Amino acid sequence: QVQLVESGGGLVQAGGSLRLSCAASGRTFSNYNINWIRQAPGKEREFVARISKTGGSTYYADSVKGRFTISRDNAKNTVYLQMNSLKPEDTAVYYCAAAFTSWDISQYDYWGQGTQVTVSS
């Protein structure tokens, strides 16, 4: 079992930065790839970024590439999403989700409760 708790969301002006954290409980945290997913009002969930179990590989949606950086500290059971040059279209609820192997959002194993990010223009 893995429980995930996101934090770090808030209100920021366009061009600003935020760092989201995803804290996990459970000793098997390092067995999971961790994903950041976001959902804006009235829109489908959207993949944002993924980091592999060891942190050796990272993947990004084209919409955030070059602006967002995902990282993890397995000793602290925490994954981070550094978000720079934020745009109003980044406004969404951001979720972290653990996936043992799947790339399919609907098949992710564990989800956090989400944290709201609002970017004002």
Helix count equals 0
DSSP strand (E) fraction? over 45%
Query: Uncertain regions: pLDDT < 50 for 5+ in a row?
Result: none
Helix content: under 10%
Mean pLDDT: 96
Topology as H/E string? Answer: EEEEEEEEEEE
Number of strands: 11
- The N- and C-terminal alpha carbons lie at a distance of 40 Å
- Judging from the principal axes of the Cα atoms, what is the shape? globular
**Helix and strand composition category:** mainly beta
Which key terms come to mind for this protein?
about 120 residues; mainly beta; globular; seven-stranded mixed sheet
Summarize the structure.
With 121 residues, the chain is mainly beta. Helices cover 0% and strands 50% of the residues. The chain has no helices and eleven strands.
What does this structure look like?
The chain is mainly beta and 121 residues long. The strands form two sheets. Strands 2, 4, 5, 6, 9, 10 and 11 form a seven-stranded mixed β-sheet that branches. Strands 1-3-8-7 form a four-stranded antiparallel β-sheet, with no helix packed on it. The chain is 0% helix and 50% strand.
